[in-house]
Amino acid sequence: MGHLLGDRRAIALLLGPALVVYTLVMLVPVAWSMGYTLFEGNAISGFTFVGTENLSRLVEDPNARDALWFTVRFAIVLTLVQVAVGYLLSLLYVFVLRRASGVVRTLVFFPVVLPTVAVALMFQQLFESAPRTGPVNALLEAVGIGGVDWFASGSTSFWVIILMETWRSMGFYAVLLYAGLVDIPEETLESARLDGASGARLVRHIVLPLSLPVLLSSVIFSINGTLKVFDSVLALTNGGPGSQTTPLTLYMYQTSFAYGEYGYGSSIALLLTLLSLVATLFIFRSSRRDLTKA
Amino acid sequence: MTALILTIVVYPLVWLVLGSLKTQPEFLNNATFALPENWANVDNYVTAITDGNLGVYARNSVLAVFPALALTILLGVAAGFALEVMVWKGRATTLLLFLAGIMVPGQMILLPLFTIYFEVGLTGSLWPLIITYSAIGLPLTVFLMATFFRGVPREIFEAATLDGANIFRMFFSVGLPLVRNAIFTVALVQFFFIWNDLLIALTFTNRDELRTIQVGLLNFRGQFGQVDYGPTFAAICLNVFGTLAVYLFLNQRVMKGLTAGSVKG
Question: Which domains does chain A have, with CATH numbers?
Fold first, then answer.
């Protein structure tokens, strides 16, 4: 019976098509893109060999440094915010709403599946300041703080992106962390309660330590995803004002398609890939077991 | 507390729908929180679909997404079966090779693909989208399918070999029915990833008639932007309602599938 499940021709037929498509459309282009880092030019005008010029330019380019810094800052801040909000929501589901949490979980999850472009355009309108006052500014004016021109500065734009991404993804992290929380045995919580722990103390001393593994996986998934942020930033601020909210992904895109510099674009893409690689190595080292459970 | 959270999640969407029913003067002259004057005003939707070309964009999305979805599922399920159920040397390495693809950012394959499609003459059709989406979906599909096949007791496959089933009959009549639900879940997850994609669609659609719904919506701002609020709101609404319809019926499965696919970040 072993030889039937080991039939080479069958393996080739079942695996072959996927492997061929994957190799041609992903693996070969990855290697090809690395090759591009040594050239200058684009698909239409042709290429010239420039050696390591692109790489040394990448090291010195202040725009690249800004984009890298934005990417890292964005990934760290958003990860902290969205995992924290997701965790608070999951605590709410488990300890306050309990069995009634189903509907709330489902509703809060909904923005996860919404097209990013639609959400970004919606947030543009929500945070609009002129010519029309959007709801957020209207609310701020009503309580006497006064409206803010959100998209006029890099720092306020940054926080609007963070807010938008949190709105989009908190339901996702809440469900992910919820799955970890319901795995905590009821007896453990019960005996802690008998020992007099309750509320914040129960969470801090019992629940939090027990949910550390799933929190860690969430953090790593989040870092891996947020490093590649593209759609939300492009649609919400298009990197502006100036280039103050431009992550590496967007910088690469602009370099390649607005300026037709494939070689330099590929170098930026390579930097991004290396950054993601470091994050992914963490994923498989620290949470491989959790992945296969779902 | 719960009410506050639900307001934060639901209110923006309600506000969006209300906005889509307002006329331009209402937007500019009435208070921000005013309700629409005419609740049956669908002019904005008509404008968005016809003048805004949203109908064409939606058709392009459907034409690109569903063939790609079918391909990625077909290839991915077969590969998952070969990698998990069948026994051969090197399958662990091959699975890892596929897994590596989950991490690769789209930006890393964009430029070579653009060059290839340009040289082969596929630029100017929806083929670059279909091909790229099929390939990009593979790593996660293969990974999830391998995981689901791992959950099937091996005895079932071994019993089938004793019954004299050949390997393809085993794949189609034993393997597939066992993971039918899983396939549906993975397809659903991939649907959202592909349907909501912006990067690939933006790169490979060089003409207005080829734009997908996401690229079309992005350019809506350019076309109507600060001038025409109503049609912009209506266009966002149409895009949101599409996913809402799917989510309304399949939310539990979507939630399960997307959290299972969380490796993608």
Answer: 61-293 (1.10.3720.10)
